[in-house]
């Protein structure tokens, strides 16, 4: 019995040690982030491409947005930042089309946060095209120009590319951050070893992992 106890104790200590070795400060593939089996093409030159997969209706995406925006601003000299709005169900497509219309019109930086506010604070529902058009006009965007862009072939092509990227990156939950076309993390993933972390703490852990992966990807470019 003493020998069995020693073996069990040793196994417990090994498990504890392994768990301690992974953290947002020293993240590990398979724990705080995932490594894609096949690296995706990126177009960021000497900088590192960082892509957020998100959806407007998602409350976790909404709460992560201001934290992420500040991180992007802070790292603008190192990264090229992109967003991909998911379109996984027909009900979400008007929101997806809304984002890409704002992007194509060059007004996403101004209006992107306002869409989150409209959905999660003002309880607006962008469930169809007319609701989107009404919001855009109410937000000060010229309705006819917005509607034309929204219904254009160019926006339809953007939706196709977005859906293809979601499939290629195997995104199944969001918000999800892809770095250098190879690494994936998220607030939930980054805090995998901290089950009792608050959402705010999860955000900070995600930023730590993202810092690590940007540095890792930059080193791999050399």
TrEMBL record:
Annotated keywords: Disulfide bond, Periplasm, Redox-active center, Signal
Signal peptide region: 1-22
InterPro entries: DsbA/DsbL (IPR023205), Thiol_disulfide_DsbA (IPR050824), Thioredoxin-like_fold (IPR012336), Thioredoxin-like_sf (IPR036249), Thioredoxin_CS (IPR017937), Thioredoxin_domain (IPR013766)
Localization of this protein: Periplasm
Matches recorded under CDD domains: DsbA_DsbA (cd03019)
PROSITE patterns linked to this entry: THIOREDOXIN_1, THIOREDOXIN_2
Similarity remark: Belongs to the thioredoxin family.
Protein name per the record: Thiol:disulfide interchange protein
Species: Massilia mucilaginosa
